[in-house]
Design a protein that fits this description.
With about 375 residues, this protein is an alpha/beta fold. It is built from ten helices and 13 strands. Helix 3 crosses helix 10. The structure holds adenosine-5'-triphosphate. InterPro entries: FSCA_dom_sf (IPR034904), MIP18-like (IPR002744), Mrp-like_CS (IPR000808), Mrp/NBP35_ATP-bd (IPR019591), NUBPL-like (IPR044304), P-loop_NTPase (IPR027417), YlxH/NBP35 (IPR033756).
Length: about 375
């Protein structure tokens, strides 16, 4: 035997525990490793009960041991399933079956909020979570294009005698968007009451099924539509997207402040800095800080929140969005890793939030005259 048990543990650190956002060692999923001559037996306990997750973890363990430890050894993997992850506690107008609702917002438009939402959703799905996106961007719903389903239309199906809207699914992500209800050639801006009605239907009259996460892609800004969203559902936490540019950061700050208002109180999980720097394909080690450096890092420090990730400005991110195949789907690419890291950081903030704070309540919005609208 030319390897140590420690080599096996080290190799297993390279595998993400399905549905947990941590590696198999960090999450204590590996409960035992035994070496008998040329045979290695790994006992692993995972939280995701699906057959696919079990098979995936088994195959990944075998592969990493053969690649990194000893290619000739026989590997046996015993996979056990523990009870499912604790759902986030919520009350109020819950969406049945939906455990965590995450709002993705940006103060300024065009900073890549939808791109970040799409890629975080794909990363979550690849980690084994069940994920949905509600595209609530009233000014320009772009998710149907980003998920290559712009020509699809949600069907109405009958669930327990009620007619429900069936989300469109691609890449393991369920999607409903205001964009499914407008002609892409017409510039429609959803206004006030109509937008609220459509959003309410997409939230409560849809067959989302069991979801670990529902990401809500909010329109840019901090206006009425945001208030009606936070009023309608108990949002577990908010993620703010910004570029490092001063004017984007100032708007991001307003976004954080909006969620933290006393009458809203949605915890901010952190800030994702998008378009952090540009690296040309021919000079991958060069980083050009086009919009400034460390802007979101400093803002996160100032606001006592977390910098969740720094996503570079890369042509392939734009191209992948345009062809409807989010870049996080590109196996083993640097961008896939960047989004996976950002997602893991968001998850660890979410776990902390769910441990430390009570459930988010439905917000009572008080009108100028002091009357509650709920
Ligand atoms: N990191 C990046 N590198 C390259 N292009 C990017 C990056 N992030 C976003 N883009 C591109 O920038 C454009 C705007 O991105 P996106 O639509 O995600 O922004 P947004 O903030 O959601 O916009 P809106 O304000 O319209 O909702 C898109 O063409 C997208 O492909």
């Amino acid at each position: 035997m030319s390897f140590k048990k420690q080599d096996i543990y080290k190799a297993l650190e390279g595998i993400t525990a399905p549905g947990e956002g941590m590696n198999l060692i960090e999450s204590k999923a590996v409960t035992n490793v035994v070496v008998f001559g040329k045979e290695i037996v790994v006992d692993v306990t995972i939280k995701n009960p699906s057959l696919q997750a079990k098979k995936k973890v088994e195959v990944e363990i075998m592969k990493v041991i053969h690649d990194k430890v000893d290619e000739k050894t026989d590997v046996k993997v015993n996979v056990k399933v523990d009870a499912p992850a604790k759902p986030a506690p919520m009350r109020g107008n819950q969406i049945p079956g939906v455990k965590n609702i995450i709002a993705v917002a940006s103060g300024k438009g065009g900073v890549g909020k939808s791109t970040v939402t799409a890629n975080i959703a794909v990363s979550l799905a690849k980690m084994g979570f069940s994920v949905g996106i509600l595209d609530a961007d009233v000014y320009g719903p772009s998710m149907p294009i980003m998920f290559d389903v712009a020509k699809e239309r949600p069907l109405s199906i009958n669930v327990d005698g009620k007619s429900k809207m069936q989300p469109i699914e691609n890449y393991g992500v369920k999607l409903l968007s205001l964009g499914f209800f407008t002609d892409p050639n017409q510039a429609v801006i959803w206004r006030g009451a109509m937008a609220s009605k459509a959003l309410n239907q997409m939230i409560f009259d849809a067959n989302w099924g069991e979801l670990d996460f529902l990401l809500i892609d909010l329109p840019p800004g901090t206006g009425d539509i945001h208030l009606s969203m936070v009023q309608a559902v108990p949002i577990t936490g908010a993620v703010i997207v910004s570029t490092p540019q001063a004017i984007a950061l100032a708007d991001a700050k307003r976004g954080v402040a909006m969620f933290e208002q006393e009458n809203i109180m949605v915890p901010v999980l952190g800030i994702v800095e998008n378009m952090s720097y540009f690296s040309p394909a021919e000079l991958p080690d060069h980083k050009y800080y086009i919009f400034g450096k460390d802007g979101a890092k400093h803002l996160a420090e100032d606001l006592k929140t977390t910098l969740l990730g720094e996503i570079p400005l890369v042509q392939s991110i734009r191209e992948a969005g345009d062809v409807g195949h989010p870049v996080a789907l590109q196996e083993d690419s640097a961008l896939e890793k960047a989004f996976a890291e950002t997602t893991k950081k968001m998850l660890s903030q979410l776990v902390k939030r769910n441990e430390d704070l009570p459930p988010t309540e439905i917000v009572r919005i008080t009108t100028m005259s002091g009357c509650s609208t709920k």
